[in-house]
Each structure stands twice: as C-alpha cells, then as structure tokens.
C-alpha cells in the first residue's frame, strides 16, 4: 500500500522597490509547510542595483548599505525555484508576490507554474466577523507573531501561522458546510479552492452536537440558558465580585435607585457621565428577588446597545450567570428563507458569491443571526438588504423552528436582562402593550428618548423609492382612470421636489396635501400604502428634508402633528420605570418630565463635580460661523484640523452636519492626512472599533458620537467640537416645541434651546473622560461662545465641568501639546 503524498505549501513574502510589477525584489522570505507544520524556511536580501526610496526604506527598515552586500537575484534564483516549484504558492495578496517572483524567475530561465492560494480572501471567507484583513490587523486579532513587520521573513512566518489557523478552522467545520463552500469556491482567486478541497476530503461526515442541519444549511445550535446565581443585597459586594473598584459616586447613585424601587411613581435620576451608571442601576435591580422580574434596559443607539452587551452584560454573565439578550428590529436579522433562495440562485457576481461563502461560515458561529456581526457587508449593501428579515414567517417555511427573528423573541422572553434601543422599544410597545407591563424598565440617556419619541410620532417617506414605485405602476399599463391619477400624483410630487431643489419653502401647503390625499385615496393601491400613511389626517405639518451620503443625497417627505404627544399616556404600567441621564432639568422652568407629560414622579440629582484631568479651550480667533459661507467655514476647519493632526494624539472631531463632515474629510484627503470618517469608512460602530485599534488617530463623527459612544481605551485623547450644537430654528420639531412652550408661558430659547445645547455639549465632553487616570483635551472651534450674549451662560456652565480657557488657536496648540504630554 503506497502512502498518500501530502501537499506542500510555500508561504512567500517579498519586499520590493515599489508596489508595481516592474519593481525589483529586495528581500525574499519563504516558509515551507507540510502536514500542518514548518519543515523549512529561507530568507535572503537581494541587491536591486538601484537606490531605495525613503518611503520603502522607512517601511521595511532596509537600507541601501545593507543591500549593497546582498547577492543579485540571479545568484539565488535556482535555490528559490528548487524550494517552491513543487509546492502550492501561498501569500497574503498572492497576485503581487506570485507575479513579481514569477517574472524575476522567468528572466533567469525558470518558469513558475505552481497553483496559487490567497490568504486575504480565504481569511475574509473564514473569519467573516473581522473588519480588516491586513496582516498587521490579523496579527492582533489572531495573535500571530509579527514582531518585525514588513521584513519578508517576518511577514512570511506570520502568513504561515495565519494559513495554519485557516486550515485548523476548516478542519473544525462540518463536512456539509465545506461541501456548500466548495460549490461556490470557483469564485475565489486563483487556486485558493484547493485548501477547502483538502479540508473537505479529511472532514468527518457526522455533525457535532453543537450544530444542526436545516435545508442543507448547517446552523449553530443556540446556547442553553444559564442557571443564574443570586446577587448579594449589598452593592459593594457585587462590585467586588465583578472585580471592579469601589466608586463613591456610583454607590450614591445606586442608593438613590434602591430608595425608589418600591415607589409606584416614575423616577428620574440625574447623574453626570463617567461614574458607572450602568452597573449602578443594573446591580440593585438584579439583586431584587421578587419573582425575578425581567429588567428591560433601553439606550439611544444600537452602537450603545452592542457596547453594553459586549461589556457589562458579558461581565454579568461570567460572574452571576445572568441571561442577557439584545433585541433589535427584524431588519437586523438574517432571514434564512431568503438566504436559502439566494444559495439556489446562480449568481455571476463574484463578490456576491464570496459573501454567500462568508455567511455559510458565519452561520456555524452566530448565536443571534444579527447581520451587524458581518463587518464587511457595507461593501455590497444591496445584497445584504435583500437578506434582511421583514418580520414575517410562513408556517410552511423550512426554517420556522430556527428562524433568527423568532428565536430572538423567544430568547427575549426567557432572559432576565433585555437590552434594546429607544426606537425599537417604542415600536414594540405600540404593537404589544404587554412587552413592558409589570417589568422593571430603565430608560438610559433619557433626554434622547424625547427626540426619539418625537421621531416615532412622525412619518418619513423616501421620495426616490416612492417615485420609482409610481413609475413601475405606470409601466404596468393600468386602466385609463388609474393612469390619470398616477400621472397626476407623479407630476405633483416631481413639481414639489423641483421647488425644494430651487430652495423654495420645504413645507407643503394644506390645499396641495389635500389633493395628494384625494389621489392616493381614489387609487386605493397597496403599493402606495406608505404614501397614504405619510399623508394621514392626524398629521398637520408636511415638509421635505434631505440627508447626505458620500456618493449621493436622499430626500424624504416628513409628516408630523403640531401637538406635543404625551409619552406618559403611551407607556403601559410597569413594575417600575427609571429615567436616567446626565441632565434631566433643561432649565428652572422646563424638565424632561414636563416634555414627556409626567405629572407624578420622583426626582433625584447627584451632586456634580468638575472633572479632573480634563481641560477645555475655546478658539477665540475662529471667525464667527454666522459670518462665513459654507466653503469659507469648511476651509477654516480644515486649516485648524490639519494643525491639530500634527499633535499625533487620538482625536475625535464632532460635527453637527454630515454634509460638512464629508466635505472636511475630502479636504483632509487632499492634504494626504489619513483619517476615519463615519459613513465614509464604515458605520459609527465600525469606525469606533478601528479607532480604538489605532488604525488611525483621527476620527470624524456626528450623530451618536455626540452622546452615545464612550472613549475609554485611550489614556490621552483630544476632542474637537466644530460648532455649538444648536437645533436648526427652521426644523419643524423645534418650531413645534417652541409653540408648545409659548402656550405654557415659557421662553423657548432660554428655557429649552439653550439648556439643550449645553446638555449636548456636556455629554459630548463627558464621552472622552470616562476614567480617573484619563487625560482629555477639548477644543471648541466656535467663537460665538465668547462673542454672543448667550455665550456667557454656556461658558459659566461648562466651567463647572472642567477647566476652561479662551485663547487664540496658536496658543491653544502650544498648551494642548504640554497638557497631553
């Protein structure tokens, strides 16, 4: 019996004089693998007979003097060819290394015809939850030894370790998954499929207990519920069991909460950021033994929701075996029926087929089916949009017993701690009053709830999609009366959009709205149901708004009622409701309780203290923003940010406008200053993770970065606030609140607008000072703080938060450099 010949792999990395195919090789690193182990390695410098550029020398650490003593490529070609010619050629970005080496060998009379395997693409398939696939990023995530990056042998050894990890991961996958992957593997670069074939041939046919097969797809079985441990009645003991330090402010906050647990009224708890509020309210509630009531925690954003699941919820599960579950809207979850149909459908798009491979691997790993776990999906968002769950499930579905959306609901009912976000909480309560009834409800960052509540009581319609629907209905050649109504509707909406583009008032007149309503009503068409809802009689205000994206802009029709809706009447009776925030009292005249309609409630406020290790500077040399046009303003920002960039400190830059943020980002690109920008380089969650991993020290953000994302990892951080975060006075929600306050005898600007602006500033400033030994420098590029009458109020309030100074920009640069030493 002859022994089966094993396949050898040559893992190769080259350093060269450039990244082009006419470059000269200056260093070769080769690691030979067989049977899952290193059997040989080889390294050599190569004399290119040309000087290196400064960039290549800086990148690799290789010098001209070093290469002068190295052999010519002709002197090492025979040995290299003999070493790798009977192997599969493996590299991280194999196209570059294999083509360059083959070209050099060919010129010496050797023809390299070995199969090629690309570890970049294999890693993308088999590690679908990673965001970045550079060797340096992977060395961090997979603990590869890359102690001397950008030398050929170090990179080759790290790539060899990566390849062995890939082989090991494939060996642990079910044979059926490998079979499904092989059916799509022709879409991989070169001969990368050979590695999957090898794993398939060696795989055991039977499924392990942790997997189940449905419809030919292998899924991971859900985790069993933990047997929960009882918490101590003493808060300090629970903190110690979690391995955390005692904090006086946190204990004081927890005692406020404990005092009101049995009070039937809604309780408002005000405490500044950075004291550990999450454990401050969760531990006392989890320590309650009364029937082990479920705790529902609602936060403003999905980013914060994921953050709590990854941090506090994980610690609670590890220490006390608390079952926690994160609940989101249906569209966050993969619909298995749709993915199943996609697998059956032959696609010509190589990228789509590679995503199918990623998903097949991911389904053997995910417990939730939450598509947010796939970090690369934004590269082909259209495909993933088709796979999102729509909230419906047929009783005849192959996957009705394993459907992720259904399983999420089941897990939500079984978990002691349920974490969701304000927007989805409101949707669930509207659909199901029992969702919160009789349970503990904590609304964290509660000031944000009012804004989400207001959005919830509005309607928003994508005009591009609506006009596309009308065009499709016209293409179907409808009856003459229906055609005339559709054409009338199409004409009116297009005319309104033209007027909006010409910067005529975005608001729709009442008589026009009535005509649109009448047309939609007579059409009685299911495809126009969203338009009918947007024109509903309960709304009295209708207007257009646009949102900016990197490559396009989108216009929405928005609808709202002029009356402030009563949240207290909407909320079912809970076991107890807590509203928690850094600021709940807008002014002496207006509180969050007033805006939400609560009449009977308790209110406690923890004494605030100025933050140590944080300083704020106001740039008094910045021209007032109301004196600049858009281009001038963006130019001023780019100039200052390019100077702050030179400090080489982790820097968060906050914008009010996505349009301005993207314009400034383009300006930094023109100056060749690498940075991360929300929605341009990924979602808020993704760019935050990349920033934390130090992929760039400069991050531009808006939206949730103002009050939903903490920066705790950085020992020193610089925060730049580009503009005071005032609401747009033309915004219809602002007009609505102003109308409500005037009717109540209040002063809208001083009792609401200005206090809310100060609140946003304080929250933003607090995001970069999350622990005692952290240093945070804040620069405010809005001189209105010094030049407007209301600026004194803001200045005084911020000086209670941290040390505050007003100076010219050059002085600020000098002081920050000293402060962040």
From TrEMBL:
Q: Which Pfam families does the UniProt record give? A: DEAD, Helicase_C_2, RNase_T
Q: Does the keyword Transcription regulation apply?
A: no
Enzyme Commission number, as recorded? 3.1.-.-
UniProt keywords (A-Z) are: ATP-binding, DNA replication, DNA-directed DNA polymerase, Exonuclease, Helicase, Hydrolase, Nuclease, Nucleotide-binding, Nucleotidyltransferase, Transferase
**Among the entry's GO cellular component annotations, what is one?**
cytosol
Q: Which InterPro entries match?
A: ATP-dep_Helicase_C (IPR006555), DEAD/DEAH_box_helicase_dom (IPR011545), DinG (IPR006310), DnaQ (IPR006054), Helic_SF1/SF2_ATP-bd_DinG/Rad3 (IPR014013), Helicase_ATP-bd (IPR014001), Helicase_C-like (IPR001650), P-loop_NTPase (IPR027417)
Span of domain Helicase C-terminal: 636-810
Locus of motif DEAH box = 444-447
Q: Which residues form a coiled coil?
A: none
Enumerate the spans annotated as Helicase ATP-binding domain.
236-508
One term of GO molecular function: DNA binding
Give GO BP annotations, semicolon-separated: DNA replication proofreading
| UniProt binding sites for ATP | 271-278
Signal peptide coordinates: none
> Hey, which family's this protein in?
Belongs to the helicase family. DinG subfamily. Type 2 sub-subfamily.
Per the entry, what this protein does is: 3'-5' exonuclease.
Could you identify this protein by its name? 3'-5' exonuclease DinG
Q: Which organism is it from?
A: Streptococcus ferus
């Amino acid at each position: 019996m002859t022994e089966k010949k094993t396949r050898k792999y040559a893992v190769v990395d080259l350093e060269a004089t450039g990244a082009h195919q006419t470059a000269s090789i200056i260093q070769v690193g080769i690691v030979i693998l067989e049977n899952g182990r290193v059997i040989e390695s080889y390294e050599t410098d190569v004399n290119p007979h040309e000087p290196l550029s400064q960039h290549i020398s800086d990148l690799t650490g290789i010098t001209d003097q070093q290469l002068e003593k190295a052999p010519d490529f002709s002197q090492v070609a025979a040995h290299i060819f003999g070493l790798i010619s009977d192997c599969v050629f493996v590299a991280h970005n194999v196209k570059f290394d294999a083509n360059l080496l083959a070209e050099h060998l060919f010129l010496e009379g050797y023809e390299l015809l070995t199969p090629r395997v690309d570890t970049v693409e294999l890693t993308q398939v088999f590690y679908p939850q990673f965001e970045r696939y550079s060797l340096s990023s992977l060395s961090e995530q997979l603990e590869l030894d890359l102690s001397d990056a950008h030398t050929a042998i170090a990179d080759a050894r790290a790539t060899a370790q990566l390849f062995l990890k890939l082989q090991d991961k494939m060996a642990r996958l079910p044979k059926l998954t490998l079979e499904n992957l092989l059916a799509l593997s022709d879409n991989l670069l070169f001969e990368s499929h050979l590695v999957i074939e090898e794993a398939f041939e060696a795989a055991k046919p039977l499924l392990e207990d942790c997997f189940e097969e449905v419809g030919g797809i292998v899924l991971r079985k859900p985790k069993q519920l933990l047997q929960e441990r009882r918490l101590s009645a003493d808060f300090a003991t629970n903190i110690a069991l979690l391995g955390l330090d005692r904090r006086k402010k946190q204990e004081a906050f927890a005692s406020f909460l404990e005092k009101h647990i049995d009070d039937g009224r809604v309780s408002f708890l005000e405490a500044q950021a950075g004291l550990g509020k999450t454990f401050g309210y969760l531990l006392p509630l989890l320590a309650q033994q009364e029937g082990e009531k479920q705790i529902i925690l609602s936060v403003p954003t999905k980013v914060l929701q994921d953050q709590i699941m990854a941090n506090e919820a994980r610690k609670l599960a590890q220490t006390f075996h608390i079952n926690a579950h994160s609940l989101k809207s249906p569209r966050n979850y993969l619909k298995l029926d749709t993915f199943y149909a996609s697998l059956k459908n032959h696609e010509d798009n190589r990228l789509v087929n590679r995503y199918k491979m990623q998903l097949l691997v991911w389904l053997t790993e995910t417990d939730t089916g939450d598509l947010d776990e796939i970090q690369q999906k934004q590269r082909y968002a259209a495909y993933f949009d088709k796979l999102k769950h729509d909230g419906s499930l047929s009783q005849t579905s192959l996957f009705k017993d394993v459907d992720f959306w259904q399983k999420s609901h089941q897990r939500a009912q079984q978990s002691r701690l349920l974490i969701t976000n304000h927007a989805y909480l409101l949707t669930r309560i509207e659909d199901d009053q029992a969702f919160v009834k009789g349970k503990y409800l904590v609304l964290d960052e509660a000031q944000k709830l009012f804004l989400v509540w207001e959005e919830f009581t509005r309607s928003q319609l994508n005009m591009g999609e609506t006009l596309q629907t009308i065009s499709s209905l016209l293409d179907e050649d409808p009856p003459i009366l229906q055609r005339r109504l559709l054409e009338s509707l199409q004409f009116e909406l297009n005319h309104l959009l033209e007027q909006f583009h010409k910067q005529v008032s975005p608001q729709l007149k009442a008589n026009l709205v009535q005509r649109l309503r009448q047309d939609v009503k007579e059409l009685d068409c299911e495809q126009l149901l969203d338009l009918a809802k947007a024109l509903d009689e309960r709304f009295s205000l209708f207007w257009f708004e646009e949102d900016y994206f990197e490559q396009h802009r989108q216009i929405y029709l928005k609808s709202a009622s002029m009356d402030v809706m009563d949240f207290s009447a909407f909320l079912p009776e809970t076991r107890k409701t807590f509203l928690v925030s850094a600021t709940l009292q807008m002014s002496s005249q207006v509180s969050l309780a007033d805006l939400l309609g609560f009449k009977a409630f308790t209110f406690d406020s923890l004494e605030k203290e100025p933050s140590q290790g944080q300083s704020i500077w106001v740039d008094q040399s910045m021209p007032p923003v109301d004196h600049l046009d858009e281009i001038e303003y963006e130019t001023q920002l780019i100039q200052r940010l390019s100077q702050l960039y030179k400090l080489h400190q982790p820097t968060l830059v906050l914008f009010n406008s996505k349009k301005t943020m993207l314009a400034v980002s383009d300006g930094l690109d023109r100056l060749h200053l690498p940075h991360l920008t929300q929605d341009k380089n990924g979602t808020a969650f993704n760019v935050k993770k990349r920033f934390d991993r130090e992929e760039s020290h400069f991050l531009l953000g808006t939206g949730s970065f103002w009050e939903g994302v903490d920066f705790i990892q950085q020992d020193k951080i610089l925060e730049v606030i580009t503009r005071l975060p005032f609401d747009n006075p033309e915004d219809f929600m602002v007009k609505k609140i102003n109308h409500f306050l005037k009717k109540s005898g209040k002063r809208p600007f001083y009792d609401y607008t200005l206090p809310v602006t100060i609140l946003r500033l304080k929250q933003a400033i607090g995001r970069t000072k999350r622990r005692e030994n952290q240093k945070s420098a804040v620069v405010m590029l809005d001189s209105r703080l010094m030049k407007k009458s209301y600026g004194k109020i803001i200045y005084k309030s911020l000086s209670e938060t941290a040390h505050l100074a007003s100076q010219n920009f050059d002085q600020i640069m000098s002081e920050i450099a000293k402060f962040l030493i």
